[in-house]
Amino acid sequence: MTRTVNLPGGGTLPLIGFGTWQLRSRTAYESVRAALEIGYRHVDTATLYKNESDVGRAVKDSGVDREQVFITTKLRPQDARHARRTLESSLRQLGTGYVDLWLIHWPTGADALVPTWEELLAAEDAGLARTVGVSNFDPDQIDLLAEATGRRPTVNQIPWSPAQHDPDLLDEHRRRGVVTEGYSGLKNTDLDDPVLTGIARRHGVTPAQVVLRWHLEHGIVILPRSSRPERIAANFDLDGIGLTAEDVAAIDALARTR
After folding, report:
1. Which element (helix H / strand E) includes 157?
2. Per-position b or e across 164-184, b if 16+ CB within 10 A of its CB
3. Angle formed by the axes of helices 207-217 and 229-236, to 10°?
4. In the chain, how long is the greatest CA-to-CA distance?
5. What b-and-e string marks burial along 4-41, b requiring 16 or more CB atoms within 10 Å of the CB?
6. DSSP alpha helices (H): ranges in 71-134?
7. DSSP string spanning 5-29?
8. Catalytic-labelled residue, pool 29, 40, 49, 183
9. How crowded is residue 185: how many other Cβ atoms within 10 Å of its Cβ?
10. 186: burial class by Cβ within 10 Å (0-12, 13-18, 19+)?
11. Contact 236/206 with Cβ under 8 angstroms?
12. pLDDT digit of tens for each residue in the chain (258 aa)?
């Protein structure tokens, strides 16, 4: 069963997504196919990644119904003046009439911030994106968009790991009704840390699985990426890992010891 988080305004977002940054051409295609076969139902790409056509082909060839796969893509700030055209290009490459989530990949310059957000909202209203959000924004920038348009991003995709854990920032997002997606959670973690290896040993899993499960305990959407089928599978196999409150607190504390 796919674990999900409710999105503001309706709809659900699978908590475990498959990241595709740095996966190109055949590797991207084969990795996404493997992820979908294993059970992932959330795939994250971006214009920047230059793999949207590979992702789209993998979804189509997987045999999984399009409606069952949550697809995210992202708008580069330098494409902000041509946002709709960029999204239409993404849709053509993905081979779909809509994306489930369209994000501004990084904040644009101050003058373009609100107009760009208005372009995303217009795409949502036109049915080209089921919902829209941001990436690498801070709460003040999110508030600026909401104050200018009356509509808040549903998601903010930001770096997150035990070393970067920030309960106050998580609360800021929750108070605003914004879902936190964390990226580079494994890349930014020392998986040889004795706290993580000790917890992993007690539960009979890998330190990477411990870190990913810890994200889920905090309600943070994860986007692990790999091109190795065994790791793609391990990163998805998290349901049987019962971290205790003490485990979670020990991992939380890594942010204070770095």
Report:
1. strand 155-159
2. bbeeebbebbeeeebbbbbbb
3. 40
4. 52
5. bbebbeeeebbbbbbbbbebeeeebbebbbbbbeeebb
6. 83-94, 110-125
7. EEPTTS-EEESB-EE-TT--HHHHH
8. 49
9. 23
10. buried
11. no
12. 679 999 988 899 999 999 999 888 999 999 999 999 999 999 999 999 999 999 999 999 999 999 999 999 999 999 999 999 999 999 999 999 999 999 999 999 999 999 999 999 999 999 999 999 999 999 999 999 999 999 999 999 999 999 999 999 999 999 999 999 999 999 999 999 999 999 999 999 999 999 999 999 999 999 999 999 999 999 999 999 999 999 999 999 998 654
Residue 156 pairs in a beta bridge with 134, 180
CA–CA separation, 186 vs 234, rounded Å? Answer: 13
Distance CA 88, CA 191 (A): 40
Q: And the tokens for 202?
A: 């007690």
SS3 198: helix
| Residues 226-252: b if buried by 16+ CB within 10 A, e if exposed | bbeeebbbbbbbbeebebeeebeebbe
Active site residue 49: yes
Contacts of 219 (CB under 8 A, 6+ apart): 5, 15, 180
The edge-to-edge listing of strands for the beta sheet with 99-104 is 18-19, 42-44, 70-75, 99-104, 129-135, 155-159, 179-183, 221-222
Q: What is the rounded distance in angstroms from the CA atom of residue 94 to the CA atom of residue 74?
A: 12
**Do 72 and 103 contact (CB within 8 A), yes or no?**
yes
